[in-house]
Amino acid sequence: MRSGFALAILLLSGLAATPVVAGPVAELKLIAEHPVDGMRGGNLSGLAMCRDGLWAVSDRDDDRIYRLDTSSDVWKAEKYGLDVPPVPDSGLPWGLRSRTKAASFIRGGDLDFEGISCDSVGNRYIVSESHAAVLRVPFSGDYGDTEWLKIAPSMVREARASGMLLHFNALFEGLAVNPEGNQIWLAAERERRGLISIKRPQSVWDCDGACVLLSEAGQRMQPAQFPGAKAVSKDFADLALFNGKLFTLERNAFQICRRDTITAQVEMCWSYAEDSLVPNRRYPQAYGLAEALVIDADGAWMGIDNNFGPRVDGEKRPMVYRFAAPAGGWSAKP
């Protein structure tokens, strides 16, 4: 009875948080783009601005993260090796885990790092999509001194009960951590997409009330600038936390949306389609490729995971785009 009641509450809360954004959204202005050299596995899948610079992860590299040297137009990825301990059981079913393991032999990246975030001290938190787990890399000490967060299994159970984390390669795609390092938001990618919050009152990360802030299905049209635009699954590609608000990277809609951290309700969205889909920047791939997001007062850093595929202009390296902050700033009202 208790679990059935909890499921009803989760589904109702997901419906209540379903965003309704009326009218056109403002376009962000692209002001710079930077190819990234030196990422062994390519596939830039996460960005974070930490106290010691800009950091990146690749979903093909399990044993390293990268600090980006941004001193020139072409950025250099500096490797920092990781000694990753065995992954704990998060409660994902055997079928999902076995498909991930099989895929890793073909493409690389058993851990499938899909997002990175930092607290105010500089500790890095990295989400493993394939294992629905979060790795903590301390700011000080040896980079081999990493640990998996102890997350209560109720988190995965609630997410799956609400329709998320059911499909291969459609699990956690991004995360954001608060400055104090005691709350994490996780983004489930698609079919259903959603947002989850966990907190750390003691040593175990757990739900504070309901874990699931949003669970949402459905499709939406790709932007008109996208060649052969069609209806595709709503998705989340990354999360960022700025000035007490969550910012979701909505890859297939080519939008960044500001959301409430408690309800996940959309407050404002901005499109990045116009400048990122000019002919020379297009990729001959069927979906959006933005996978990494950092928000600051002056704008947004956005990482492109091109799966080694070239743009129309021939550029094959991972790219980081810089967009200017919208008129009125990220706190602008509709």
UniProtKB/TrEMBL annotation:
Keyword Ion transport set for record: no
Residue stretches making up the Phytase-like domain: 42-192
Keyword Hydrolase belongs to the record: no
Protein name: DNA topoisomerase IV
Pfam families (alphabetical): Phytase-like
Superkingdom: Bacteria
Signal peptide, first to last residue: 1-22
Organism: Pseudomonas karstica
Keywords assigned by UniProt, alphabetized: Isomerase, Signal
GO molecular function terms attached to this record: isomerase activity
